[in-house]
Structure formats: structure tokens, C-alpha cells
Amino acid sequence: MLPTISLIIFAISFVTTIIGGSTHHFLLLTVSITLASMTWIIFSLSFNKNSKHIKKKFRGTPMSVFRLVFLLAGVACALISSIYLRDLPHYVHKDYETLKGVPSKVKQVNPSRYEGNGIDITLNGKEFRVNGNFNVENLRDKQFVIQYLPYSDWIISYKVDD
Fold first, then answer.
1. Which of 30, 62, 103, 111 can pair with 121 through a Cys bridge, CB separation 3.0 to 4.6 Å?
2. Beta strand pairing status for 105-109 and 155-161?
3. CA-CA distance, 152 to 104, in Å (whole number)?
4. Where are the beta strands (DSSP E) in 4-154?
5. Where is the chain membrane-spanning (predicted)?
6. Do 18 and 62 form a contact (C-beta atoms < 8 A)?
7. 111-116: which pairs have CB atoms within 8 A and are 24 or more residues apart?
8. Could you give the CA distance from residue 34 to residue 42 in angstroms, rounded to a whole number?
């Protein structure tokens, strides 16, 4: 029963992670990716060799292999979520880092199915991806003001001054 519940929770948290990332909602992304990592770890420790989650042709495989694969997936998710969790107090207290200046590099991002349109800019040696439809040529000599979280470099807000 516990493996089934953890898989359902993982599926829900995986979907909300995608929604949180695509809608640029920091809190939703942080909570959902943390929940996903915990459920992977719980799943890896809770299923047995006769579990219905393992296809019959794989049931002869040692359980340690399955547990290791799922445990590594959970640990990888936990490592990713730790970056966002470190920024959580900064997000809650609105303690953002601010960079101001003219970018040394502005590059158009090729759209992908997940990221949308945007530009990569380098400002004071730090790289950021700003989403939106911009003409790169019009931004080369413009002043940017970017508020971001210190560990994940998650952009909270940005402004382009003339």
C-alpha cells in the first residue's frame, strides 16, 4: 500500500513541479520537487520483490538493484531541491539580491517546448535567462535591474531601463 501511495504522491508532485517551473512560481516548484524527492526515497525503501509495480520479467532481478535506482533518483531530486530550499528564507523574507548594469553579453534563446522564448544575459559576470519576447539588438546597450534569489539565481523581477 505504501509504494502505491508514494507513487501517486510522486506523480502529483512531478506534475506540479512542471507547472511551477513553467509558470515561474518559486514556492510551488520548491515544495513539489522536495515532495517528489521524499516520495522516491520512500518508494525505494518500501516495495518488495512481489510488488505489482515490478513487471514479471524483472521480478528475478535482485531487489537491491531496484532500490538503488529509485534511491539514486530520490537523492538526485533531493540535491536539486536543496538549492531551492536554501533560497526559501530569502524568498519568504523578500531578501533578494539585486544586480544593476549593462549586460556584457546578450543572446537569443532558441525556444524549446518547456522554456519558451527568452534571452540569456550576462550581467556583472553572472548569467541569467530572462523569459519574454525581446529584440536582442534593442537590449545590447540598455541598463538592466534584476532581483534574484542568491543560491538558485531564480529571477524574482527584472526591469530594462533606457
1. 103
2. unpaired
3. 21
4. 97-101, 105-109, 118-123, 126-131, 143-148
5. 27-47, 68-85
6. no
7. 114/18, 114/21, 114/22, 116/22
8. 12
pLDDT in tens, the chain (162 residues): 667 787 788 888 888 888 877 778 899 889 999 998 988 888 888 876 666 666 666 656 677 777 888 899 999 999 999 999 999 999 999 999 999 999 888 888 776 655 556 788 899 889 998 877 777 777 778 899 999 999 999 999 999 887
What does the chain come to in residues? 162
The alpha-carbon radius of gyration of the chain (Å, integer) is 20
All cell numbers assigned to 88:
526559501
Pairing between strand 143-148 and 97-101? antiparallel
Q: Would the pTM count as exceeding 0.85? A: no
Domain boundaries, the chain: 2-92, 97-161
By the 8 A CB rule, do 48 and 78 touch?
Answer: no
